[in-house]
Protein: Efflux RND transporter periplasmic adaptor subunit
Amino acid sequence: MRIMSVISAIAVLAVLYFVVFERDQLFQFAQGAEAAEADIAADEAVAAETAETDAQEGAVGVVAIRSVAQTIDSAVILRGRTEAARQVTVASETSGLVTSEPLRKGAFVNAGDQLCQLDPGTRQASLAEARARLAEARGRVPEAQAAVAEASARVREAEINLNAASQLSQDGFASETRLVSAQAAMDAAKAGVQRANSGVASAEAGIESAQAAVASAEREIERLTITAPFSGLLETDTAELGALMQPGTPCATIIQLNPIKLVGFAPEADVSKITVGAIAGARLTNQAQVQGEVTFLSRSADETTRTFRVEVTVDNADLAISDGQTAEILVASEGRSAHLLAQSTLTLDDDGVLGVRAIDDNGVATFMPVTLLRDTAEGVWVTDLPEEVDIITVGQEFVVDGVRVTPTFQEAKG
Structure:
C-alpha cells in the first residue's frame, strides 16, 4: 500500500511540474498533434479528389436540370373582332306618311315595340268594302244550294215520266214520240242540276275571293305599324314625323348585342384543333376578358386568305362589348404533356432541327428534337420528350452526341 501511494505522489508531482515549469513545451506538443491530424485529413481529401478526377478523365462539365413533363391546356390563338349577333334595317312595306314621333338612336327597344306608324288613309274603307263583299258572297250560297235542290227534284220527276213512257211504249199504249219527249226532259233536268252545282261552286269561289280581299286589306293595315323584329339597340333615328314612306324606305336600323359574337380566322394548321362547343376566351382592346364557347366553325376556307371562320358566342347582358372591337381569341384544345424550359436551352442540330441536349443513363450527351408549343414569360413549353429527362442548360453548345459529361444539377422550372 505504501508503494502505490508513493507512485501516485510521484505522478502528481510530475504533472504539477510540467504544468507549472514546462507549460510552453506542453502546449507546443498538443498543437503538433492537432496539425498532424489536419494534415492527414487534407491528404485524404486530395486523394479522394484525385481519384474522382481520374474516374472522370475526359468528361465535360455542364449545368443541367431534371425536367418532369406536365399536362398543360393547349390553346389556339386567333386575332379577330366582335360582331353583333344580328343587325337589320327595318323598312316599310307600304306607302304613307309617318304619324309617330321618332325614337332616337341608342335607345333600347324590345321585340314588337313600335318604331314607325303610318297614316291609314282610305285603307279602313277598303277593308269595310271587302267585308261587305264577303257577306254578299256568303248570301249567294243558300240561293245556289236551293237551285241545286230544285234541279234535283226535276231530275227525279223526269225520271218517273221517262219510266212511265217507256212502259207504255212497250205495251203499245204510248207513241214513240212521247218516249223521246220524256227522254229529252230527263236530259234537260240533269243539265239543270249541273248548272245549279256550278252556281254553288261559283258562290263558294266568291266567298274565298272576298275572304282574300278582306285578308289583304287587314294585312295592309297591319303594315302601317312598323315594329322591332327583335330586342336591341337603335343604330339610327327612326323615320321623322311627317316623312313620306314608300315600300323599301328604311324606318330604322337595329343591332342585337346580347349575346355577341367573337369572330376569328384560323389558319389551316390550327383548324383541326378547334371543335364546336370548345371553351374560348378573349382579351379586348380595353383589356377586358370574356369567355364563351365556339358555336360555329367554317368548313370552307376563304379563297384569298385560306383561313377558316370561327365564331364564339359570349354573354353581353350589360352591353359593355360593342360591335367591331378588336379581340385576341384563345380557343382551348386538348391538353398535352410538355416540359417548361428556358428559351436559351434550345439548340439546333447540324440539319437545323430544333431540340435540346440531354444526358442519357450513361452520362453521355445526346440530341433530342422537340416541338415548340407555346412561348410564355416563364419560358417555352416543348413536347416530344420523355416524361422525365435530364436536359443540359449550360454548355450544350460545347458538346456533341456521344461526349461524356459531368453535370451539375440545378432546380427545374415549375
About this structure: Residues 137 and 207 are 5 Å apart (CA to CA). The helical segments are 2-21, 23-55, 123-171, 176-222, 268-271. The chain has a mean pLDDT of 81. DSSP finds five helices and 22 strands in the chain.
